[in-house]
């Protein structure tokens, strides 16, 4: 049995490190910034949403607690994906675009980490979400040997605003941050925060008002960000030759995040020689996660599986 630390809510209303579980079963839960005692309210508030599956909405995260899903040893490929759920930087669809995705990945031999990053405007404006994203990649890389992960096969995946976070983590990985938690614990400061690949699903990419998702922009940058910040946080304008390869999925009829976001990132990657693959679907709308059941967009998880398998990052599901 592989020992794995988890964090449990105790009767006192605090979180504490406890017990062990076997790989391939329940996820590990770890305080992202190294806290060993957290008030239960600090990890966020959950609300249910109408669905025939678990579909909670998470807000109010003060101290992120990540969940790590490990595959069965016989199926493990050594690849890992850090997952950022979407929610307009107001909250997160933590199950549909987080835990369910991580389970799907682990069933295909991939170690997956769900990151309930801090967001919601106010004191959680940029650079707070990006600080959490970079920390999560560093945490995964720092625990690679323990978790059976290849340090050259660690990617990021995000949906909607989480796609923006994954894209900025892929383009601003060397950006020094002056956020409130960046200097609290420098345990991983020397560990690379650069992802090795990215998966962007109906992503917010640009902060330019003509194409951006307005709520995401306000919740991340505030009401009136200056031009320099808009440029910096428009991921398509930050792509370089060092940006990792990307898979992009979007629906042309997306009424929340214009498909131009995906197209701009694709074109930027092409212009800089970054390997990129984009799949656009005529219909599908927004926010389907991996649950789309109608139309051609329902096939996108199979596209993802093929992309991962083709790069030696996953095994095909039985």
UniProtKB/TrEMBL annotation:
Keywords: Hydrolase. Its EC number is 3.1.1.72. GO terms for molecular function: acetylxylan esterase activity. The keyword Hydrolase applies. InterPro entries: AB_hydrolase_fold, BD-FAE-like_dom, GDXG_lipolytic_enzyme. It comes from the Bacteria. Residues 68-265 form the BD-FAE-like domain. This is Acetylxylan esterase. It comes from Botrimarina mediterranea. The gene is axeA1_1.
């Amino acid at each position: 049995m592989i020992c794995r630390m988890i964090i449990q809510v105790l009767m006192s209303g605090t979180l504490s490190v406890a017990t062990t579980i076997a790989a391939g079963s329940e996820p590990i839960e770890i305080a992202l910034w190294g806290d060993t005692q957290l008030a239960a309210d600090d990890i966020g508030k959950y609300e249910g949403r109408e669905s025939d599956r678990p579909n909670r909405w998470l807000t109010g995260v003060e101290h992120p607690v990540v969940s790590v899903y490990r595959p069965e040893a016989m199926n493990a490929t050594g690849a890992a994906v850090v997952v950022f759920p979407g929610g307009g930087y107001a909250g997160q669809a933590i199950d549909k675009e987080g835990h369910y995705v991580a389970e799907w990945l682990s069933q295909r031999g991939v170690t997956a980490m769900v990151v309930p990053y801090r967001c919601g405007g106010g004191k959680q404006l940029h650079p707070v979400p990006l600080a959490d994203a970079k920390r999560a990649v560093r945490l995964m890389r720092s625990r690679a040997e323990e978790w059976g992960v290849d340090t050259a096969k660690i990617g990021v995946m995000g949906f909607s605003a989480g796609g923006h976070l994954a894209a900025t983590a892929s383009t601003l990985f060397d950006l020094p941050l002056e956020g409130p938690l960046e200097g609290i614990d420098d345990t991983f400061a020397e560990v690379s925060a650069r992802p090795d690949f990215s998966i962007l699903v109906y992503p917010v990419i640009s902060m330019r008002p003509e194409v951006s998702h307005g709520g995401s922009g306000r919740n991340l940058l505030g009401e009136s960000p200056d031009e320099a910040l808009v440029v910096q946080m428009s991921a398509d304008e930050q792509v370089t030759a060092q940006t990792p390869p990307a898979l992009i999925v979007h629906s042309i009829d997306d009424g929340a995040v214009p498909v131009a976001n995906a197209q701009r990132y694709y074109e930027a990657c092409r212009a800089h020689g970054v390997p990129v693959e984009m799949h656009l679907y005529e219909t599908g709308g927004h926010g389907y996660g991996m649950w789309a059941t109608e139309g051609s967009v329902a096939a996108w998880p199979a596209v993802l599986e093929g992309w991962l398998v083709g790069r030696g990052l996953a095994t095909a599901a039985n």
